[in-house]
């Protein structure tokens, strides 16, 4: 089982990146997923230019390498987690731009967990935006459950998540959501190939 966690903030040392690393701890410590099978894609490190990347001033070779790195990780993943900070009541523009680079069939019918992150009381709007506009052509499968992490600075600071009693309500909710994601991933493995085959003639709908 390969899990890809995408930290959608363009900022270095972001709270989204912090949560991504803590999610990895939960997957490894509580669900015994092999450490090397949980990968984090931090969009502050892998800078994708504004799509369609046709600016002649761009380093074409570097752009090509960055895109290929992203595609490789998407192809390998069985399940995905998308963490978006809330900026001005919207999802991260870096994350929305990222979806423009997702090939049609590489994430089709793969389960994904949407997570909204806010240093205040927000986090709701990124979830709404991702569910509305980030899956249509790539056929990503968002699971019904999602997670809103408000006041994120006060959350996910632990070294260990082995003790359920010592976890906050938000950390417990995150653990349940990740458990659901893994369950969906296991269940969809057997049918994903057929679902991708069915949509070959009309990959973008009717």
Radius of gyration over alpha carbons? Answer: 17 Å
- Residue ranges: pLDDT <50 for 5 or more in a row? none
Mean pLDDT: 94
The number of strands is 6
Structural features, described:
The chain contains 5 helices and 6 strands. Strands 1, 2, 3, 4, 5 and 6 form a 6-stranded parallel sheet that branches. It is of the alpha/beta class. It has helices spanning 15-31, 60-76, 93-100, 124-133, 169-198; strands at residues 3-7, 38-42, 79-85, 111-117, 141-142, 147-149. The model has no long low-confidence stretch (mean pLDDT 94). The two termini are 33 Å apart.
Tell me briefly what this model is.
With 206 residues, the chain is α/β, with parallel strands linked by helices.
Task: Sum up the structure in keywords.
206 residues; 5 helices; alpha/beta; 6 strands; globular
Protein topology:
Blueprint: E1 3-7, H1 15-31, E2 38-42, H2 60-76, E3 79-85, H3 93-100, E4 111-117, H4 124-133, E5 141-142, E6 147-149, H5 169-198
Parallel strand pairs: 1-2, 1-3, 3-4, 4-5, 4-6
Helix pairs in contact: 1-5
